[in-house]
Design a protein that fits this description.
It is a single chain. Helices cover 27% and strands 24% of the residues. The strands form five sheets. A twelve-stranded mixed sheet has the order 5-7-4-8-9-10-11-12-16-15-14-13, with helices on both faces. A hairpin with a 6-residue loop joins strand 11 and strand 12. Helix 7 packs across helix 8. The protein is globular, with a radius of gyration of 23 Å.
């Protein structure tokens, strides 16, 4: 144990749970709890390995995974027939020649992508479905091994951000049971004693969410970035503070820089973001010392690729392509998530885990110009409160190659002067030639998966004819 471990919120403060009532310290966790702690112990060492040593370990695991996939998964047997030799040593170059798997291919080939011989030692098998926030849900099979890995990386996230697990966790999200619960969830259950957790559905009115959050007096809040921004802005208007809150945690959406700053300024707490996908698991966690992300190399092989399929240099934006290292039920090999991210430089914290400087969004979050080029829109939303402080929600939708629809929810109608200033402000951030129409709404609905996007393009290509 290092001196840092003894600080408040560190593992020395965690109350480990024992499977034996007669042995309370040091605790002897049972079954899956012991497995999670066993993996966590290794993660504490592996994070400090050099990038080259991490890559060596990944290649070893990938070699096992690819042989299994080629031998037992019909889809890969056919797709790799001319590109993969199970008897040849695996190198990064050979791996990069394997075809990528698209989201649509995963949707259309669920049965063909299932392994015909899932190792019995990987335990029970269950189906998992994505939320389908883009209208396109996907299905995969997962095992007890993939769940154990999820648990271990959840503990790593808690450990990195030095959370006091005895505190109360409040979650405002979609797709999980609501109510009050004795612990923080499956990752800590039977392993570490925690405070209680409470869950509220994200579709509740924002004022109702604030009243609920006031009542809970929670130490930690878990929600979506867009919902967090609404909560903070409305609490400022109402003069509501949360003195017990220590940290906001965000999932499921792109976290804008201004949301971090808003939360820090208004509530005095940091934001810790998680990059994950239901079909994958953990992809990257926010660095404990910085606001960028570390790829979780012990459970995924991450590639950020340019338009030619080459690895991006630091600072370049590319497509996120991920391979799961431990899912032997539905192996996802070189799976194109549809996300874009910015590659980062090695982190000053000393961890060898690759850096994602920023997660940008999906293709549908890109603006298509009349010149055929795509742009990541930055519409200056951080300036909206000064121009029109009564805006509660906003969403921009590209309707055509020259028209943006600005959907606004406001507490009182904007004045003509505010509309003029807002139009000028937004258009200054757009390529030349775009018109802006205002549409006022009672509320901007979230997706079926509870998520929200502040920019969506409905234009996928040039019109025909």
């Amino acid at each position: 144990m290092t001196p840092r471990d003894a600080e408040a919120g560190g593992p020395a403060d965690w109350k480990y749970q024992s499977a034996l009532p007669e042995v309370v310290w040091p605790a002897l966790p049972a079954g899956e709890g012991a497995a999670s702690l066993g993996v966590l112990l290794q993660l504490e060492s592996s994070q400090w390995l050099s990038p080259d040593r991490l890559l060596d370990h990944q290649m070893r695991q990938l070699e096992v995974l690819l042989r299994h996939a080629f031998a037992t998964v019909p889809y890969y047997r056919q797709a790799w027939s001319e590109r993969y030799d199970p008897n040849a040593p695996l190198t990064q170059e050979r791996f990069s020649k394997l075809p990528q798997l698209t989201r649509r291919e995963l949707q259309e080939n669920f049965d063909a992508l299932k392994s015909g011989r899932i190792p019995p030692s990987h335990g029970s098998v269950a189906e998992a479905r994505s939320s389908g926030s883009t209208g396109s849900p996907v299905r995969v099979l997962k095992t007890q091994v993939t769940q154990a890995m999820w648990n271990a990386f959840s503990l790593r996230d808690h450990l990195w951000h030095r959370r006091d697990l005895s505190g109360k966790l409040a979650a405002i999200r979609h797709g999980v049971p609501t109510g009050e619960f004795a612990g923080w969830g499956v990752a800590t259950h039977g392993v570490i004693a925690t405070g209680p957790s409470v869950v509220l559905g994200v579709k509740e009115d924002i004022d109702a969410q604030l009243r609920w959050l006031q009542e809970q007096r929670a130490a930690y809040l878990l929600t979506y970035p867009s919902n967090l921004a609404e909560l903070v802005r409305r609490s400022q208007e109402l003069g509501i503070r949360f003195p017990e809150l220590r940290e906001a945690r965000t999932i499921g959406e792109v976290l804008a820089v201004e949301v971090r700053e808003l939360c820090r300024t208004a509530w005095g707490v940091p934001v810790a973001d998680i990059y994950s996908a239901e079909e994958i698991g953990y992809i990257a966690l926010q660095c404990p010392q910085q606001e960028h992300y570390h790829a979780q190399s012990e459970c995924v092989f991450l590639e950020i690729l340019d338009d030619r399929g080459r690895g991006c240099a630091p600072g370049e934006i590319g497509r996120v392509v991920v391979t799961t290292l431990h899912n032997f039920a539905t192996p996802l090999v070189r799976y194109d998530l549809g996300d874009f991210a910015v590659a980062g430089v090695p982190c000053a914290c000393g961890r060898g885990l690759p850096v994602i400087r920023r997660i940008v969004g999906r293709t549908r979050n890109m603006l298509l110009g009349a010149d055929g080029k795509r742009y990541w829109p930055s519409l200056g939303s951080h300036g909206f409160p000064e121009i029109a402080p009564t805006i509660v929600q906003h969403q921009f939708v590209q309707k055509s190659l020259d028209l943006i629809e600005a959907r606004l929810v406001t507490r009182v109608p904007l004045t003509s002067e505010q509309e003029t200033n807002l139009r000028r402000h937004v258009q200054s951030a757009l390529p030349a030639g775009f018109r802006l129409n205002f549409v006022y709404c009672d509320r901007i609905a979230r997706s079926a998966g509870g998520k929200y996007e502040d920019f969506v393009s409905e234009v996928s290509r040039f019109p025909q004819g």
